Amino acid sequence: MARLAQTAGLTDIQREILATVRGFVDKEVIPHAQELEHGDTYPEDIVAGMKEMGLFGLTIPEEYGGLGESLLTYALVVEEIARGWMSVSGVINTHFIVAHMIKQHGTPEQKEYFLPRMATGEVRGAFSMSEPDLGSDVAAIKTRAKRDGDDYVIDGQKMWLTNGGTSTLVAVLAKTDEGAAKPHQNLTAFLVEKPAGFGEVVPGLTIPGKIDKMGYKGVDTTEAVFSGFRVPASRVLAEAPGKGFAQMMDGVEVGRVNVAARACGIAIRAFELAVEYAQQRRTFGKPIAEHQAIAFKLAEMATKVEAAHLMMVNAARLKDSGQRNDVEAGMAKLIASEYCAEVTQESFRIHGGYGYSKEYEIERLMREAPFLLIGEGTSEIQKTIISRGLLREYKSRG
Ligand SMILES: Cc1cc2nc3c(=O)[nH]c(=O)nc-3n(C[C@H](O)[C@H](O)[C@H](O)COP(=O)(O)OP(=O)(O)OC[C@H]3O[C@@H](n4cnc5c(N)ncnc54)[C@H](O)[C@@H]3O)c2cc1C
């Protein structure tokens, strides 16, 4: 993209990483995305390529074998990947969240044990908060973990685990009995190891098959059923029962920047497709781009792409500087996902009837964009977070 979604002030290393990823996406992702997506096929070769580039260890500190890059670098990489195919960014997203949680909160032993193998992609992370009866209302979690000697025993059902089948490490949020009055203070995060696959993968833990989704195909999204599943107490994140809610929310906050980045990537691609098509397709004796109604659509789409990108970059930079970014991450996620849905819809309209054909990429983007309105917290939940933060900041003195 020559003009849109540029980022000022990047280092040479960041520019080099982004150029490498962009080249990979243009050569290895875009030409295969349509076929893999329509077949709901896991992108093995693309994942192998990402491993080779070190993307699974992008943000893991160098002392643990990663590249030690910032959230901003990660978000810009995700934007590039989602421009090619959103499902591929889904493969690394939950991994990145779990690595972030271990890096920020894990004990020295947990970091030594997991991070080096996460950096190579040998261990692959998924994270699990949602349940069949709840997604937004995390504090209402029903899955229980009861202490039994040196172990906890987990019982309950989890829903919507992205990478549930392909991962080998799942950060699971469950209810423990800490005796706290506030429900969220009775939640604990567990680092659950399991082999990749489906069925009863270890005694007491079943990963039923893939959920058949409208889009975001290729990457597996599953349920997880825990029935008398034993996990050592040493696998409580930070060995700190009752702290799981805060730890997971820290993960979700970086996840929100990442979802914003994905939305930017899809919107960029939808714009690219529209601007190209509008100059090729002729009606009433001229390219449709020369009809003002279409040219104005392009102008509005590009403005939305630019605004979303800048807010996403701002939220990532705030987090990298060590400042709280819940409001900015919420705003970036809200605007990027809503704009992504709008830009994709406009690109679809510009394609006329062909946009409805499975031969055209915009058909896939139309099915991918809605997920971003839901994942890592719906738009309503983002507005709740933003307004709470603002009311804290602008507290009335009256
Ligand atoms: C493809 C896919 C992948 C996912 N991957 C993961 C994953 O890897 N890990 C994971 O833990 N979860 C995952 N999720 C779950 C996702 O985070 C939840 O679906 C999401 O948080 C919404 O929860 P819900 O579906 O239970 O909707 P609900 O919480 O039931 O919400 C339903 C509607 O009510 C609105 N609503 C709810 N509460 C309020 C309120 N207080 N005020 C105003 N409106 C409200 C919502 O905005 C929404 O419109 C995934 C979901 C999908 C679809």
CATH architecture of the largest domain: Up-down Bundle
- The fold-level CATH name of the largest domain is Butyryl-CoA Dehydrogenase, subunit A, domain 3
The low-confidence parts are none
Number of H- or I-type helical stretches: 10
Helix content: 40-55%
The CATH class of the largest domain = Mainly Alpha
InterPro entries: Acyl-CoA_Oxase/DH_mid-dom (IPR006091), Acyl-CoA_Oxase/DH_mid-dom_sf (IPR046373), AcylCo_DH-like_C (IPR036250), AcylCo_DH/oxidase_C (IPR009075), AcylCoA_DH/ox_N (IPR013786), AcylCoA_DH/ox_N_sf (IPR037069), AcylCoA_DH/oxidase_NM_dom_sf (IPR009100)
Keywords: FAD, Flavoprotein, Oxidoreductase
Family: Belongs to the acyl-CoA dehydrogenase family.
GO molecular function: acyl-CoA dehydrogenase activity; flavin adenine dinucleotide binding
Describe the structure.
- By secondary structure, the chain is of the alpha+beta class.
- The chain has 3 domains: 12-120, Acyl-CoA dehydrogenase/oxidase, N-terminal domain (Butyryl-Coa Dehydrogenase, subunit A, domain 1); 125-241, Butyryl-CoA Dehydrogenase, subunit A, domain 2 (Beta Barrel), CATH 2.40.110; 246-393, Butyryl-CoA Dehydrogenase, subunit A, domain 3.
- It has helices spanning 12-38, 44-52, 71-84, 86-105, 108-120, 244-280, 292-320, 326-350, 361-372, 379-393, and strands at residues 125-128, 144-148, 151-162, 169-175, 187-193, 199-202, 205-207, 221-232, 282-283, 286-287.
- The strands form 3 sheets. A 5-stranded antiparallel sheet has the order 2-3-8-7-6, covered by helices on one side.
- Strand 9 and strand 10 form a beta hairpin.
- Helix 6 (244-280) packs parallel to helix 8 and helix 6 runs antiparallel to helix 9 (361-372).
- The longest helix has 37 residues, at 244-280.
- It is globular and about 80 Å long.
- The protein starts with 11 loop residues before the first helix and ends in a 5-residue tail after the last helix.
- The mean pLDDT is 97.
- Flavin-adenine dinucleotide binds at residues 94, 127-130, 134-137, 160-162, 213, 216, 221, 371, 374-375, 377-378, 380-381.
- GO terms for molecular function: acyl-CoA dehydrogenase activity; flavin adenine dinucleotide binding.
- Belongs to the acyl-CoA dehydrogenase family.
- Its cofactor is FAD.
- Residues 11-122 form the Acyl-CoA dehydrogenase/oxidase N-terminal domain.
- This is Alkylation response protein AidB-like acyl-CoA dehydrogenase.
